[in-house]
Design goal:
single chain; about 140 residues; mainly alpha; about 75% helix
């Protein structure tokens, strides 16, 4: 049984690394919004006198939202990567469970990885590998 658990953990480690790379890559998409926002912020279009919404405000909002989305995505990718390393080292059991639960929100790949990770980590023999008791 221990060999089977070790093999499942090894596969989960690989899957976490691949998933972290995918999340980091897809988190780069809002860089487009950040770029558009910076263009409007740093080089605003000429406006008429009574325009209620200046282009610089539009640029600031667009750049802020883009930057927040990119940073959130990269932060989550880093957490998934650290969870993979933690699974390999058999450490940070609670952190791995939390990252797996958050991964479940990102359908479909994150859901599959998160559910499988939670299932494997709930086994008493795997808990013992992490230094947790089987209860």
């Amino acid at each position: 049984m221990m060999d089977k658990d070790a093999e499942h953990l090894r596969l989960l480690v690989i899957a976490h690394y691949v998933y972290a790379a995918m999340v980091a890559l897809f988190a780069c998409i809002p860089i487009i919004h950040l770029t558009i926002g910076l263009v409007f912020l740093l080089n605003p279009l000429p406006q008429s006198q009574g325009d209620p919404f200046p282009a610089q405000a539009f640029g600031a909002i667009f750049a802020t939202i883009g930057a927040v989305l990119v940073l959130a995505g990269w932060t989550f990718a880093a957490c998934v990567f650290v969870a993979g390393r933690s699974l390999a080292a058999r450490r940070r059991y609670t952190f791995c469970i939390v990252v797996a639960a958050i991964s479940c929100l990102l359908v479909p790949v994150g859901t599959v990885l998160g559910v499988l990770t939670i299932i494997v980590l709930q086994r008493p023999s795997v808990r013992a590998m992490f230094g947790r008791d089987g209860a």
